[in-house]
């Protein structure tokens, strides 16, 4: 599957198959800088220039003892390393040439106030690559292999693939000396680690944001290079001359501490597991030329940790067996002590899921060892998986992982945990459950309550690090009314998968007695771990395992508890974030009833002595945002299609349209709850405490934004497709316009909200009528666009234009005469707008990608000022 960049969607291909998001979506720079020889010089203004030369300066090969005195301390490990007179040397043994090594560069410390493409904190990853060290005559090269093409070494295509897949050269080094037995060479890596090399330094994005003008060598240095049995850790401080420091421009500089881990990959890669679109796993794709298929076959491997039983015989009998190597997560020592037990519990909760795959004690979390317990331990070390705690006001957490590009084996993970995720949890828990949950009716929760919420988020993020993406289809498995049952929710939580965005139970009503209000590791999670981590005896091939796993998957076909729904598409109403239950209209009705109970109590429940009303303002906006989400959940049903991935062995459609009755129900719901002014959202006594004339216009903007979403060209395109295929069984565009007309221009004198909505509707119709609104993105195939919900349509040539023209004329013909001054002026204004739309007097501007982008791309919440693309827990439609 090709990767394409679409608006509002982050699609990312990575050499190392780094899985985030959500999750997270700034593009990682992983292309190798092809510097043949590194030569650093200090310019007149003090900046460091890294020159690329055609050939290295010939200094001759010296005796080992001339460079490394006898009393020099050797740091033995992957490569022996030496420090002499401020220079760092690697002694590279012949046995490690052409071995793949994973290289991960992370921040250790960053300046305060750094806010570029999200925030960067100590422990967050900058870049990852695979390196191979190669000797050529009197030089040593670092090559960066590509894994996008492959063929088995026994295949006739192997040599051809090698010829078309040359590894780029990142850097070259002169051989300074041979060791005593000539089984290794000595190279000087000082300039390399001190230089401005993108692979182990700042990304172009950060450099541009802070207007860096090269490194300042006088304020940069290598802090340490330490060698371990399978890895080397290089700790550097790099100072860049900067015209836009996030802290103090008077310094003219910005400094970072970085750590680059180089980890030897297994000589024999783990046996890969072939991906199945019906079971959710992160993975990696490559073109395989070594198969018997009569084409260049794209294969995909899932990402998973290597789990093998200590006792294969006992495992084969069905006994639970411990793995040879346990999955271990360490808790950052910078974590507040009171939250450590809850973060650990969130990890250990996955142990039961791994039992379905035959393993006991497969995964565990521990506090990081102290310096006394293990002086060599470092949270930046790529050998360790760590939950890093960031002192940050970002309301977020995310769970990335780095996988071996040869096999999909997960090698390490650094979960990012931002301190202020607690604010997000407080807001959600209060706004979604306070109607039935007295424990949520407080400005600040008890440590025990917050700890349990942290445990839930910890489990979700660890799921990502185990290879599991978001399963946005999971929450649809449960009937809406089952979430009002105490017995059901006590057993099942809110969804079969903790990897859905099924946050907290907003459906339960007062009197239902429901007390278990948040998600938990459920049936689907157990199933996906069983599918991905079960070990098969007998040295079966990946293809043979695929056949067994396919039969397992077939047995669960049609059972919604085991359904996987991908993230990122807007065509299937089941695959939405923040939703619950199998009917968005019914669920949202319950949700709105609870919001009506919560809103009048916000001032009381957010009370804090001697504090201003900022918290009341935040919570009030959360109510607006929650209402907006409910309306979005409903809208997706209109023009919606169900997506059920299948193989040739399964019967039934992969894509079928949402039933006509369900689409009509959605349109009527919007008429009643959205287009009939939701005056209950206006609580004047509370607004008087913080609102200076903003909230009313936000409500109007929300109505307009959701209306644009309801009639965007991609949605209308699917409705026309449905009508062409299913005739009278389809909910048609004509019927949608009739329903919209009733909701927006129904009986009664329009108030200020309805007048704004009517003008907005006419202007959107004008846009559809007069602008070249083709939903097209050059270079992206139509099928790829449609897959994400951006169904292409040439509006100018489609049936949209005639229908819009008829609707505008219908509106104009039905405009009343007279009324009070503002009503009369409003109708006169609408008449002129419609006249201009039908008979434009100004030049029509083609703004494809401008206004049209707003009509075709996924609509974001205009009430949410914290929109972003970080993985994995923002208050947005991206990733949590």
TrEMBL record:
Alphabetized InterPro entries for the sequence: DUF5117 (IPR033413), DUF5118 (IPR033428), EcxA_zinc-bd (IPR032534), MetalloPept_cat_dom_sf (IPR024079), Zn_MMP-like_bac (IPR034032)
Record-linked PROSITE patterns: PROKAR_LIPOPROTEIN
GO molecular function, one term: metallopeptidase activity
Residues of the DUF5117 domain: 123-310
Signal peptide region: 1-31
Pfam family, one: DUF4953
Top-level taxon in the UniProt lineage: Bacteria
Keywords of this entry: Signal
Domain DUF5118: 61-110
Segments forming domain EcxA zinc-binding: 443-746
Protein name (Swiss-Prot/TrEMBL): DUF5117 domain-containing protein
Organism: Mucilaginibacter celer
């Amino acid at each position: 599957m090709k990767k394409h960049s679409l608006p509002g969607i982050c699609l990312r291909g990575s050499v190392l198959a780094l899985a985030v998001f959500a999750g997270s979506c700034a593009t990682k720079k992983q292309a190798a800088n092809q510097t043949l020889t590194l030569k650093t010089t200090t310019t007149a203004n003090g900046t460091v220039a890294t020159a690329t030369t055609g050939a290295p300066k010939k200094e001759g090969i010296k005796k080992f003892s001339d460079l490394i005195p006898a009393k020099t301390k050797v740091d033995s490990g992957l490569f022996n390393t030496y420090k002499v007179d401020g220079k760092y040397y690697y002694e590279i043994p012949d046995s490690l040439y052409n071995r793949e090594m994973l290289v991960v560069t992370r921040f250790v410390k960053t300046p305060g106030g750094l806010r570029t493409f999200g925030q960067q904190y100590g422990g967050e990853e900058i870049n990852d690559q695979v390196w191979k060290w190669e000797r050529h005559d009197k030089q040593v090269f670092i090559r960066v292999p590509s894994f996008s093409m492959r063929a088995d070494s026994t295949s006739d295509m192997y040599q051809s693939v090698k010829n078309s897949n040359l590894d780029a050269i990142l850097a070259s080094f002169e051989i300074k000396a041979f060791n005593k037995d000539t089984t290794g060479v000595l190279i000087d890596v000082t300039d390399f680690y001190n230089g401005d090399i993108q692979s182990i330094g700042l990304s172009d994005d950060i450099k541009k944001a802070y207007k860096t003008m090269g490194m300042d060598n006088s304020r940069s240095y290598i802090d340490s290079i330490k060698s371990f049995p399978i890895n080397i850790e290089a700790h550097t401080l790099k100072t860049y001359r900067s015209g836009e420091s996030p802290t103090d421009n008077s310094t003219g500089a910005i400094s970072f501490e970085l750590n680059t881990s180089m980890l030897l990959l297994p000589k024999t890669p783990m046996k890969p597991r072939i991906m199945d679109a019906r079971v959710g796993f992160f993975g990696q794709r490559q073109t395989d030329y070594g198969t018997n298929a009569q084409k260049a076959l794209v294969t995909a491997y899932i990402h998973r940790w290597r789990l093998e039983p200590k006792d294969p015989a006992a495992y084969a009998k069905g006994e639970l067996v411990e793995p040879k190597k346990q999955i271990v997560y360490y808790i950052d020592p910078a974590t507040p002590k009171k939250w450590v037990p809850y973060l650990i519990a969130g990890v250990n909760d996955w142990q039961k899921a791994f039992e379905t795959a035959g393993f006991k004690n497969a995964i565990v979390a521990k506090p990081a060892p102290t310096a006394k317990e293990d002086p060599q331990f470092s949270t930046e070390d790529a050998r360790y998986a760590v939950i890093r705690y960031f002192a940050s006001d970002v309301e977020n957490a995310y769970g990335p992982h780095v996988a071996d590009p040869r096999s999909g084996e997960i090698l390490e993970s650094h979960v990012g945990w931002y301190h202020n995720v607690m604010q997000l949890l407080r807001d959600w828990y209060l706004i979604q459950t306070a109607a039935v949950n007295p424990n949520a009716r407080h400005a600040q929760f008890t440590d025990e309550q917050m700890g349990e919420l942290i445990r839930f988020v910890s489990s979700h993020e660890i799921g990502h690090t185990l290879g599991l993406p978001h399963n946005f289809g999971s929450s649809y498995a449960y009937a809406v009314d089952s979430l009002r049952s105490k017995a059901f929710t006590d057993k099942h939580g809110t969804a079969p998968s903790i990897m859905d965005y099924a946050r907290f139970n907003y459906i339960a009503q007062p009197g239902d007695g429901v007390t278990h209000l948040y998600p938990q590791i459920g049936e689907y999670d157990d199933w996906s771990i069983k599918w991905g981590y079960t070990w098969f005896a007998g040295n079966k091939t990946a293809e043979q395992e695929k056949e067994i796993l396919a039969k397992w998957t077939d047995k669960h076909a049609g059972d919604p508890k085991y359904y996987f729904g991908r993230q990122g598409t807007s065509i299937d109403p089941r695959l939405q974030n923040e939703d619950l239950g199998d009917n968005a209209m019914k669920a949202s009705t319950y949700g709105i009833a609870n919001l009506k109970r919560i809103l009048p109590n916000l001032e009381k429940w957010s009370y804090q002595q001697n504090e201003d009303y900022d918290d009341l303002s935040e919570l009030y906006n959360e109510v607006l945002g929650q209402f907006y989400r409910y309306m979005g959940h409903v809208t997706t049903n209109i023009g919606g299609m169900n997506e059920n991935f299948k193989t040739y062995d399964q019967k039934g459609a992969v894509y079928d349209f949402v039933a006509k009755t369900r689409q009509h129900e959605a349109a009527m719901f919007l008429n009643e709850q959205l287009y009939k002014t939701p005056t209950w959202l206006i609580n004047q006594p509370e607004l008087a405490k913080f609102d200076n004339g903003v909230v009313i216009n936000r409500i109007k903007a929300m109505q307009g934004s959701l209306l644009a979403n309801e009639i965007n060209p991609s949605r209308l395109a699917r409705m026309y497709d449905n009508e062409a295929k299913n005739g009278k069984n389809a909910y048609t565009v004509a019927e949608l316009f009739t329903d919209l007309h009733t909701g927006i221009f129904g009986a009664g004198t329009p108030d200020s909200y309805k007048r704004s909505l009517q003008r907005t509707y006419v202007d959107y119709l004008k846009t559809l009528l007069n602008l070249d609104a083709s939903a097209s993105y050059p270079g992206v195939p139509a099928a790829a666009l449609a897959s994400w919900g951006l169904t292409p349509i040439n509006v100018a040539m489609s049936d949209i234009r005639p229908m819009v023209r008829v609707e505008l004329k219908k509106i104009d013909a039905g405009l009343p005469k007279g009324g009070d001054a503002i009503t009369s002026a409003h109708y006169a204004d609408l008449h002129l707008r419609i006249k201009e739309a039908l008979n434009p007097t100004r030049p029509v501007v083609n703004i494809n990608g401008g206004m049209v982008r707003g009509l075709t791309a996924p609509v974001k919440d205009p009430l949410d000022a914290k929109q972003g693309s970080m993985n994995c827990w923002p208050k947005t439609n991206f990733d949590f």
